[in-house]
Amino acid sequence: MLPTHHIRERVVRIHLICHHTSFATGTFVASEPFATGSFVGSKSSAIPSFHGSKSFATGTIVASESFATDTIVASESFASGTIVASESFATGTIVASESFATGTVIASESFATGTIIESASFATGTIVESESFATGTIVKSHFFPTGTFITSEFFPTGTVVESESFATGTVVASTFVVA
Fold this sequence. Notes:
About 10% of the residues lie in helices and about 5% in strands. The protein is mostly loops. The model is unreliable at about 5-179 (pLDDT under 50).
């Protein structure tokens, strides 16, 4: 039988890892390093799962206090998968990261529908930057090897494209297009 202080230490560790305040459905887990599996950490959530961690090798890392639907993920570095960061959004997916090897990098505070992506450099995929737009896609980047270059602060419908250099695809320059 283990000494009392060893048993108490294990109980404390289990409590720290599995601690949660309230959760309607799903699981709450709080821990900084985790090799595989899921990290969950949040005060409250309605339906989905909440994950929080600084580094994660595989899987999904999600961090947020509250969101209605979909998934919110926050992390500084992520090897594979998706990195999402946002405080609140209605529908869709919001992703924020400075560098991402594969997948999609999206950054925005709020948007109604569609996808908003922001990144300084992105190897493959799509780079989009905008604070708000109603429908469609807004893309902005100085350099992009493949894909689409689009830049605009706001447009209701259609596509606005602007770029100085473009390897493949179509380059269109305009500040406002209604389509």
